[in-house]
Design brief:
Chain lengths: 296, 296, 296, 296
């Protein structure tokens, strides 16, 4: 299949590579020549603008961009995708942005005859490279079906979340809960250890009790509990604290727009902001436990 | 085995019944004649004070009381257990109290030659009746081994948490995390549904993603997501909000004593306090979602 | 002086009337015919668009609009003020918006030769009618001097806060602190009264101690403490809870953009959002004490 | 007048000295010989136990102790004050403790014929030395009148707060509000300065607007705003952060006992706990602004 791909960064690059490996013919654009070169080496065709990608005769265009402003610019800009793409081409935006903006762009696309899906991912750069991402997809069922084989080349778990924007809704809701849970685990582990318990014993109990969650089982923030978790290697790698901060910001912003309280969510955002102020934004988000244990 | 049992309330009653069913000879005390009568019917011997239980020739005494003040009074009071019990009798307190008090009472018992374990439970009245409780046990390993067959008649999961007091530590750490997670799930579900997602679809995504936790999987607070959860029957039954409030109070108090911050834990306590002020303290603790969705 | 005025709502209407009373010749625009009619009765000239106001031969144009999107549209829109106003005309925006947007619009104005000031107010509709508003003004000192006599016809306290945008900065910082203080007073009064103190006695002590603040002295949230405060008339009138919510949203949004934690500010926003969800957004912002005392 | 005084620490020492200077005959006890020596030099008589003070023929006994456990021990202990004091002697406890304990001790005193007042102070060690403390007094009006001349030798502002315990209630309510306000000012100043405002200009605006409070006017946390505030001398002197933490702990504990939510109060406590964990507990409580500005 001829597929356009815009945005070849830490996530987009390996995703596009997986599409190429799967045998698709890629037509790519990125501002970084280095990023483009890697794809060209894998057989992709380099184009010099989103508009050129739109006019390259592709069936599907996938974008992976840093924030809503870039998505709006690439899709809605004067010489952007919508101004150049033929009717019927399927548009898939995998950027993580607020649901409101996602719906706005999708509505504009739909108005001129292009089906559009929001399809943010979870799984990080590791999942992007391994092709094991989860895609949370919002849009019409028929378009989801059409996108499924393409997304399957990049991910393992492709979930239809409902109408347009709902992929982003699922992503921000999940990641807000993740941020809250991680801080909750950090507090529970700190409290228990400070009160005299062995960290591994405590984690074992939480994981077989009602406190268990992904953050206690898979990414426990206490060093030494899980050998392969970021906590056991100085909090390097993993999902960065500043990325969690960004997602919490999307969640509280989306909540504000619909007048929905998210009390712990807002506090979690502030705690990650404080943590970032202390200079730790680049560490895995489990490092938030440093707010609670000065020796970690 | 001859076993003393003090405190035959909603939890202690069914726990003692399971011991009786397992063939043990029980010597019981409770202020409520009604509670005692049920046990007598099951073959137990009724005694008129903790002191009488202490002198009844038992090998083990188990207590299940509402709060630290009752535990201190029953064990340390002028005519209490310690003033009357022969050396060597094993004492097991299954009340949920603060770790500091648990250690204080155990130290007093140890000083006069009685091994003591703190062994708070999780699993609620359902688990007490079914004999499927989890026991989190603090104390010496040899005493834990001695208690194991007795506790096994009342629970399915008997966990040694380390030294004296650590059973209580595990309990408060777990339940603080549980309270935080539940509010986090309530916020994530409310946000997602308010932004347009179907509740069941959203829960399904959380449960297969990094937001998953006991509160999203087993006791999801959104009505209709889980047929058998309290949320689907008006939040009746389950683990009451006021009990969660009590446990959050134990956690923040224990944290204060050791100067350990628990930021989300303290906020969770306040939110359950606010919820209780609105008159909802008797509902299952998943009902906290009512703070976020006025129509639930 | 010939003065243009755009936005004649609850605040803008009485502000413009005070300018008319002071002898200025007004050229006004508002979408509401009723609002315009009141000003015409007072001698103002009605125009049918911001563009018409821009071309009306005025020396100064003042705008008073609900939110940043309206300000951007009126100033930067295709047929907006900047596209039509002659060089040198002084532009004053008294809307309360985020500092970033204020600076963006002022920079665009400056680029084409129009000095611009951000000049949000405090004092509410009462201050607008009485001409006793406080103006917090951001922009060049010379422009501030030029604006001073005009603003003095509408307010009593005209403060220069520094460069462009700083009027908005002062406003959001002050109102965030105000929201936090009000909730703090609500909690302190609720705690003291629930613990057995007389409300007036407690307020008297706070007001002569280190807890004193505008919210305890001038707008005490406990009914009966201050005869003329909203709390003593069912929380009607005053500064609405939903307006406080809006300002807290501006504060946390501005903080997010510069990566500045505002922990209590974010929690105050969430509490006002919860209060609004309960249907109380129209009450004076001191009514937030209802979250703490179910009988108030 | 013959006056007993128990507890001659940083606060009690200078308070007792002021009584001596006013011509009263003091009979004192403290565990520290050094503290006692200073009073003896000023003419006081040294006694070797609270019991001895109780039997020394005094009309009034004043105590100034660190925490509730010391107050209970001194008053209710086996050989304590109540076991030894003649009927009718007026007892005044100036310690800052929880209202519940204060009422418990006063009730025991009253039962055996001794009127008792709780009379915690504000004003710090400076106010204690200068004799300018504020006394917040709980107890019967006649006892308050009797105590007034004695307290006036140590303080300037002697306030009757109502029945027994209400002095403590006023103190914890005021100090909880103070802690919240200080953090609020820290956030507002940090936000404004980070957004580009001059700190003094911003403080000036807050202090003439609705955000004004004791913490912005008298103890502004931003360095350089007030020449004589702790912020301008490295946060030395003043009211220590760990003392604020203690008072916030008393407030949230008192709130818990009566099931009263204090949401910002609890969060303020946690933030001061976090600040203390970072090793800053000895700095003036305005230093909490360091949580928000990494360069301060």
């Amino acid at each position: 299949m001829n597929i356009g791909f815009i945005g070849l960064g830490n996530m987009g690059g390996p995703m596009a590579l997986n599409l190429a490996k799967a045998g698709h013919r890629l037509h790519v654009f990125d501002l970084s020549q280095l990023a483009v070169a890697q794809l060209v080496e894998a057989g992709a065709r380099s184009l010099d603008s989103p508009a050129a990608v739109a006019r390259a005769g592709v069936e599907v265009i996938i974008s992976m961009l840093p924030a809503a402003q870039h998505v709006k610019s690439v899709y809605l800009g004067e010489d952007g995708l919508l101004a150049n793409v033929p009717k019927g081409v399927l548009l898939i935006d995998s950027s993580t942005i607020d649901p409101h903006s996602a719906r706005e762009v999708a509505a504009a696309a739909s108005k001129q005859g292009n089906p559009m899906l929001d399809a943010p991912v979870s799984g990080g750069t590791g999942g992007a490279a391994a092709g094991t991402l989860t895609f949370m997809v919002g849009g019409a069922a028929a378009d989801f079906d059409r996108a499924h084989p393409v997304l399957s080349a990049m991910g393992r778990n492709i979930v239809h979340c409902g109408d347009s924007g709902n992929g982003q809704v699922a992503k921000v809701a999940n990641n807000m809960l993740l941020g809250i849970s991680m801080i909750g685990v950090a507090e529970a582990m700190s409290l228990g250890v400070s009160l005299g318990m062995d960290a591994k014993t405590l984690a074992g109990i939480l994981n077989t009790s009602s406190g268990r969650c992904w953050s206690s089982e898979i990414n426990n923030p206490y060093p030494g509990v899980l050998e392969n978790a970021p906590a056991s290697r100085g909090y390097s790698g993993g999902f960065g604290s500043d990325l969690m901060l960004k997602d919490l910001g999307l969640a509280t912003e989306a909540a504000k727009q619909i007048r929905q309280p998210v009390i712990l969510g807002a506090l979690a955002q502030q705690l990650y902001q404080s943590f970032s102020l202390q200079g730790h934004g680049g560490l895995d988000f489990s490092a938030i436990i440093k707010l609670y244990q000065k020796d970690l």
